[in-house]
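This follows on from our talk about sequence and fold. Please put the record directly below this note.
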Amino acid sequence: MEWLGLYNYWVVVVLMMVGFYIVIAQGNLIKKIVGLNIFQTSVFIFYISLSKLDGGTAPIYVEGITTYSNPLPHVLILTAIVVGVALTAVGLALAVRIHEEYGSIEEDEIQAQDEEDARNA
């Protein structure tokens, strides 16, 4: 059962597919934003999982320790989290503005209104 030792990669795959499915299958814009956040979280977990070394410690000099984990991926993920929160805020603000304009956040209803407006113009 060697594959059980790679459980974090299984979590990444499951979260990635769940997020991707939500983005593709849902017509609600808020649900799509949630799906993108789930997908993004899976990428964070994957990137951090790659940076961990067995037996590696924090990169602080201590006598007798020769194996250190690379801190760079963790710092990059912190930056990515901040960018992700900002993008989520922009997406939610756009969803609010779309709701104000169209009265709905369902893709089908918005597209139908656009097509009707194009025919009437």
